[in-house]
């Protein structure tokens, strides 16, 4: 299983203007190591699906407290496992649809406009 090709996509789709600092963080080895370690720590399955008794692979390490200009340098937001959640594409799409209704995600993880 591979990580998303564009790790900054969530930052942009969440409605925040991508900052140079956020882009740098999402491209950093620190973030790559953190998301790999987090994925392993939770067993590689979508945490929300698992709570429903479903077994779907997690694909996206999601920040529960969204990254913004005020917290982009706060390690408790960026890399603390308590602020991370492994989600499948469907659950990640649902998370952001509740926040900002700009798009929908179909069953295959494709963005619908």
In short:
The chain has 113 residues and is α+β, with helices and mostly antiparallel strands. The chain has helices at residues 9-13, 20-27, 29-41, 47-51, 75-78, 89-99; strands at 60-63, 84-87, 104-105, 111-112.
> Radius of gyration over alpha carbons?
14 Å
| Strand order of the biggest β-sheet | 1-2
Mean pLDDT: 80
* Strand runs, count: 4
Structural class: alpha+beta
Distance between the termini: 27 Å
What about the largest sheet? 2 strands, antiparallel
Q: Specify the number of helices.
A: 6
Question: Considering DSSP H and I runs of 4 or more, what fraction of the residues is helical?
Answer: 40-55%
Outline type: globular
Give the number of domains: 1
The string of secondary-structure elements, in order, is HHHHEHEHEE
Topology:
Layout: H1 9-13, H2 20-27, H3 29-41, H4 47-51, E1 60-63, H5 75-78, E2 84-87, H6 89-99, E3 104-105, E4 111-112
Antiparallel strand pairs: 1-2, 3-4
């Amino acid at each position: 299983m591979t990580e998303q090709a564009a790790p900054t996509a969530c930052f942009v789709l969440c409605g925040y203007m991508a900052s140079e600092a956020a882009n740098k963080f999402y491209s950093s080895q620190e973030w790559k190591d953190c998301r790999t370690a987090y994925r392993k720590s939770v067993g590689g399955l979508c945490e929300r699906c698992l709570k429903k008794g479903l077994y779907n692979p997690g694909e996206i390490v999601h920040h529960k407290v969204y990254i913004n200009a005020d917290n982009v340098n706060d390690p408790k937001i960026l890399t603390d496992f308590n602020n991370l959640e492994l989600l499948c594409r469907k659950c990640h799409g649902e998370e952001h649809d509740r926040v900002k209704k700009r798009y929908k995600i179909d069953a295959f993880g494709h963005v619908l406009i």
